[in-house]
Amino acid sequence: MILTNLEITKQVRKKQINILPFDENLLNPNSYNYRLDYELLEFDDNLDAKIQSKPKKIVMTDEGYTLLPNKLYLANTYEQIGSKKYVTQLIGRSSIGRLGLFLQVTAPLGHVGTNHKWTLELKVVQPLRVYPLMRIGQVTFWKIKGRKKQTYSQGEYKNFQSAHISKFYKELK
User: What is the spatial distance between Cα 59 and Cα 143, in angstroms, rounded to a whole number?
Assistant: First the structure.
């Protein structure tokens, strides 16, 4: 079951959902708009899953930064988001998608127990200028059913406060 905007607000106040900073103006009927932070990691189109690529670090100003096709960008949410009670799902906004930005296509599902700034995957089909603190995506919160054996407290990508590159190369050794 997905939480409504009123329930998200209620759960934030009860500290069952963490969104820092929280702004009620960013609520939608059943989601919360998260914003893009200031830093991007830019990769060229020669990625190899066995080799840890060295990204170019970009710190955006108020003028923003133009994302280009044939590159992968990693960024992070401005907000720290998480819950020990609800599952998060980070998705794009349709208004941004209609500009040609693919956001969180492969990894939208968070895990119960995570609470951090989320790494975002960005890919564009045409040049697109993005800006720090722009409303780039939405997070939804889902009630879980059944007992859980574990939380994501031991996961590879937990507790980050900035974008992080893939650690998939560790699985290929």
Answer: 36
110-139 pLDDT tens trace:
778 888 899 999 999 999 999 999 999 999
Residues 102/168, Cβ–Cβ less than 8 Å: no
Which token pair is 136? 């780039």
CA atoms within 13 A on the CB side of 160: 19
Tens-digit pLDDT profile for residues 16-61: 999 999 999 999 999 999 999 999 999 876 666 556 668 899 999 9
| Residue 7 appears among annotated catalytic residues | no
Q: 155 CB contacts (<8 Å, ≥6 apart)?
A: 111, 114
Name residues whose C-beta falls within 8 Å of residue 17's C-beta, 6 or more positions apart in sequence. Answer: 8, 11, 82, 83, 85, 86, 141
Q: Which of 7, 24, 63, 121 is catalytic?
A: 121
**How is residue 67 written in tokens?**
């994302």
- C-alpha dist (Å) from residue 22 to 58, 86, 156: 26, 17, 26
